[in-house]
Amino acid sequence: xxxxxxxxxxxxxxxxxxxxxxxxxxxxxxxxxxxxxxxxxxxxxxxxxx
Length: 50
Description:
It contains one helix and no strands. By secondary structure, the protein is mainly alpha-helical.
């Protein structure tokens, strides 16, 4: 294989990797925001012994 072709392939590989790392994200996660609290607060005197 020609040395210039090898160097060209390596440079294309790294430029594609850099574009993937520093490019915009493509995740499809929904926005979560603040979740409501639905539990009971802990009270110091309300503990059951096992």
